[in-house]
């Protein structure tokens, strides 16, 4: 039987609770007996900083490099607000993304039928919503140099972040978006700010050139990122795949989450380039949400985004599409049965906590 190695990095806050639910799902698939998932757990984020003084150790990075997939919870929280920038909790996640070469972040925003009335938007705008946001993850303003805060002679401080993109970085993420669109609705919106940013001009040019190999079956529309944000609340169903840079991708996917009912519903997959010999990709799967310190440790968090992220691992890392579909159906069924964590609570529904939601999904899987 094939054994796959999973590195679990729960991180901080509700990451710990939602990863615990993923462990139960992993256990279910181990008992199902098709493959074996061997798990190992390590620290990241504030938890790693508290113990080791860094947001991720070299030893944990080594495990991540060797794992077949990393399943990540969440990092950060006010406890670490004063921590130096280079070792703050988020630095652990950024190092994982950069060192593993995880340039393609897939963030599906799907509105489950039972949650159409939990959305921040009207039911008719979100019923059947299925958008894939493709966020470039290892470039842009997150990593561009210089990146600094300096004190000027006047005593005033000056902060700089630098947005950098190269042709090859844009081309490879555009290809991911067009390839995905071919298996979905054949439409890509490319979002940038070419009216004010040079990186937007280059982004637009390279996406247009890359599109030539995918036309005419895949349609391409360019959209300014601010207009994209507005259209996501005005008429989200016009979108199929949205490809965009690191920062806009972070913002637009949080916005899209509210159309699905809650940030607690959005999973993600961060993928590297396929290895030239084996075809295998480095991969990290994590909920889009953060560590939610206000509800951490109370058993209130919605585990669905983290569980669905493991579903993406089944699909993208382990060629277990059928099992991923089963997991999606189990999630849809518990929602249809009226179970709700606080973030997606609606009148007349049955309010449950993190572990109860996990148990209900497991129960559905066992049927
Ligand atoms: N699970 C997501 C998480 O923990 N996010 C915290 C974070 O570092 N976010 C930075 C980003 O993704 O832009």
Could you please describe the fold and organization of this structure?
The protein has 367 residues and is of the alpha/beta class. Helices cover 40% and strands 20% of the residues. Helix 10 packs antiparallel against helix 11 (321-336). It is an enzyme of class 1 (oxidoreductase). Homodimer. One of its GO terms (cellular component) is cytosol.
Strand content: 15-25%
Per CATH, the superfamily of the largest domain is Isopropylmalate Dehydrogenase
Topology order in helix (H) and strand (E) letters: EHEHHEHEHEEEHEHEHEHEEHHEEH
Distance between the termini: 24 Å
Largest sheet: 10 strands, mixed
Strand line-up of the largest beta sheet: 2-1-3-12-11-4-5-10-8-9
Count of DSSP E strands? 14
Main location: cytoplasm
InterPro entries: IsoCit/isopropylmalate_DH_CS, IsoPropMal-DH-like_dom, Isopropylmalate_DH
Binding site for Mg(2+): 226, 250, 254
Pathway: Amino-acid biosynthesis; L-leucine biosynthesis; L-leucine from 3-methyl-2-oxobutanoate: step 3/4
What is the secondary structure topology, with strand pairs?
Layout: E1 3-11, H1 14-32, E2 36-41, H2 46-52, H3 58-66, E3 69-74, H4 89-99, E4 104-110, H5 123-126, E5 130-136, E6 144-151, E7 157-162, H6 167-182, E8 187-192, H7 198-211, E9 219-224, H8 225-234, E10 241-244, H9 246-260, E11 269-271, E12 283-285, H10 304-316, H11 321-336, E13 339-340, E14 350-351, H12 354-366
Parallel strand pairs: 1-2, 1-3, 3-12, 5-10, 8-9, 8-10, 13-14
Antiparallel strand pairs: 4-5, 4-11, 6-7, 11-12
Helix pairs in contact: 1-10, 1-12, 6-7, 8-9, 10-11, 11-12
The protein binds glycylglycylglycine.
């Amino acid at each position: 039987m094939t054994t796959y190695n999973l590195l679990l990095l729960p991180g901080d806050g509700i990451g710990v609770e939602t990863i615990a639910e993923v462990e139960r799902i992993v256990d279910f698939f181990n008992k199902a007996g098709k493959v074996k998932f061997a798990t190992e757990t390590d620290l990241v984020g504030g938890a790693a900083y508290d113990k080791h003084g860094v947001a991720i150790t070299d030893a944990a990075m080594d495990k991540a490099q060797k794992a077949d997939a990393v399943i990540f919870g969440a990092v950060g929280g006010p406890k670490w607000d004063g921590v130096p920038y280079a070792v703050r909790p988020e630095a652990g996640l950024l190092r994982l993304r950069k060192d593993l070469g995880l340039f393609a972040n897939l963030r599906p925003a799907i509105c489950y039928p039972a949650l159409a009335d939990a959305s921040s938007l009207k039911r008719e705008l979100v019923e059947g919503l299925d958008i894939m946001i493709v966020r470039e993850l290892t470039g842009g303003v997150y990593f561009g140099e210089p990146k600094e805060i300096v004190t000027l002679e006047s005593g005033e401080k000056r902060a700089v972040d630098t947005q950098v993109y190269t042709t090859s970085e844009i081309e490879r993420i555009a290809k991911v978006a067009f390839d995905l669109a071919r298996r979905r609705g054949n439409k890509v919106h490319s979002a940038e700010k070419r009216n004010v940013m040079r990186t937007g001009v280059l982004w637009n040019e390279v996406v247009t050139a890359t599109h030539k190999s995918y036309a005419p079956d895949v349609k391409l529309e360019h959209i300014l990122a601010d207009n994209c944000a507005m259209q996501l609340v005005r008429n989200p169903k016009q979108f199929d795949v949205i490809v965009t840079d690191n920062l806009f991708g972070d913002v637009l996917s949080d916005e899209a989450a509210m159309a699905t009912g809650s940030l607690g519903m959005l999973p993600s997959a961060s993928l590297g380039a396929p290895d030239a010999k084996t075809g295998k990709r480095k991969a990290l799967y994590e909920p889009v949400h953060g560590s939610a310190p206000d509800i951490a440790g109370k058993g209130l968090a919605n585990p669905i985004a983290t569980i669905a992220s493991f579903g993406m691992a089944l699909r993208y890392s382990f060629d277990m599409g059928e099992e991923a579909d089963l997991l999606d159906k189990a999630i849809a069924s518990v929602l249809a049965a009226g179970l709700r964590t606080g973030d997606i609570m609606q009148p007349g529904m049955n309010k449950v906590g993190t572990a109860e939601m996990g148990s209900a999904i497991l129960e559905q899987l066992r049927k």
